[in-house]
Structures are given as C-alpha cells and as structure tokens.
C-alpha cells in the first residue's frame, strides 16, 4: 500500500509497506428503516443543485475562508515539498525501553519488504538495530499525512509502526490523580509479588480470542431462530471497603490452586479455583480414614497365620 525507500544517511533502501494487521471483528450492522426494516442508502446530496450526485463528481477541497474553497488534486499532493513523500527518513536511533512514553502511542503497524536491489543494506540495518537493541525513529508521509514512526526488527523483516505526534497525546494532568505517596507494608508488597509471580508466564497469543464476538454471534443466532435471549447474571457488587491484605492472600491461594504446575493463571481461573476450594476440602475430609480401615480389613487369615507361626514354633520346641 506504499512504495518508497528508507533513507539511512546517504544509503537508500527501496522498500514496500504492507498492512501488518487486519480487523477480525466480523460482526457489522446495517442501518434500517424501523418501520419496514428496509436498508437505507447513504447518498451524496448537492444542496445547490438540489439533487443526488455520484461520488465520481466530487473533488477534494480546502476551506481557506468561510464558504471559500480551493480544489486540491492528487497531482497537487504529489508536489508537496517534503522528502518524506516517498521515503522513510530515519531521524535518530534510541533505546526502546526509555521512559519517554511517546513510542507507546501507536496508530498502525506495517511490514517492510525490501526490494532485491536493497536487501543487503536492509538486513545490515536490521542486524545493527537488533544487536544494539535500538529503535529507529522516522518520518514518512502515508495517505496524505506525515507520520512519526518507529522502525524495529521483527521476525524475518522489520516493522514500521506509526506513532501519534507529541501534541496529539493528552496530558495525564487532566486526570484526577492523588498527589500523596502510599506507604505499603512489607507484607502487602510480598503478597502482591507472590500473586504477580503466580500469574507470570510466557505470552501465548494463540490462546486468546475475541470472546465478545462469539457471544454476540450467539445472541444474533438466537434472534434469527426466534429464541428467547437469556440475560446474564449481574456481577456481584463489591463492598465499599475491602481488606487489601485478605484479598491478596485469597487471590494468591486461588492462583496456586488453579495453577497446578508452572502455567500462569488468569483472574477468572483464580476466582474459579477459589470457589472450588471448599468443595475439594470437604471431599478430602470425607475420604479420611478409609485407607487405614481397608488396610486392617485386608490383613485376613494370611496375616493372622504369619503372626501365629512363631508361637507354634516356640510351643513345639
């Protein structure tokens, strides 16, 4: 969807960009007329001619004064005096783990495919970025807009992620955040660390799925089949105040029960394990003593004869 070059000093690397992600939401709705459920049409209407016009009769216009427009064509956009129209200009290199949060506000990800003529230079740059653990900060024009971007090694290629400009990122000062520092007890920190440790493991993205989409499709299928839709049980409301230490301890115990091995657990799994603990404890208590009784009963005549043999030997002697 974009063709140009990476500008690395005086080195030019011809590349192509491809969208790295796609929407899998899959459930879309149409606007209908409530009266007869007919699908409505979005038409382009010209108020001057008072008629509907086709899309190929439209042009791009910029309003430079009230109700005063200048037409901008694709040819005009190609003449914008910026180097980044057809190039990814690397501005600097930086450590990705720095505290500057601007690199976290991403817009879109693109796979980078190098042309054959530039493959050696492309993979040389990728190797250096990987070895030095660096991110390249770039600027590029995509879809009529210049974007700030980050270039990183990814799998067998590199990933270009467009970022928000600093003036597009809202300040956290707009939030109602407490000004005081909290003094945590050592036991609270230790218990919180244990809970985090029990839920820590390798990220396996294939285990995650869009559960909302599946649930929504069940609702839609039920409506199609004319079935009654059962509302889910409302979640239990938490109290106004909770004992943080007790909540952490219960969470750790539930996480350990659900974990079983080294696999991390989710919050849902921890809650489920916590709910099952009393039932398992009751079953274990009910089973106590049975093996011992079975052992005594299992001795039978063979065991009694073995115990009686020494006595008979002494008597015959």
For the CA atoms, what is the radius of gyration? Answer: 34 Å
Categorize the overall geometry. Answer: extended
Question: What is the terminal-to-terminal distance?
Answer: 105 Å
For the biggest β-sheet, the strand order reads 1-2-8-11-10-9-7
pLDDT under 50 segments (min length 5)?
A: 291-301, 310-317
Helical amount: 25-40%
What would you note in describing this structure?
The protein is extended. The longest helix has 21 residues, at 267-287. The protein has a 7-stranded mixed beta barrel. A two-stranded antiparallel sheet has the order 3-4. Helix 3 (186-198) runs parallel beside helix 5 and helix 5 (244-259) crosses helix 6 (267-287). The protein has helices at 74-78, 119-132, 186-198, 211-224, 244-259, 267-287, 290-297, 300-316, and strands at 2-8, 11-19, 44-46, 51-53, 60-65, 68-72, 87-94, 106-114, 135-142, 145-154, 157-163. Mean pLDDT is 78; it is low at 291-301 and 310-317. The protein is an alpha+beta fold and 317 residues long.
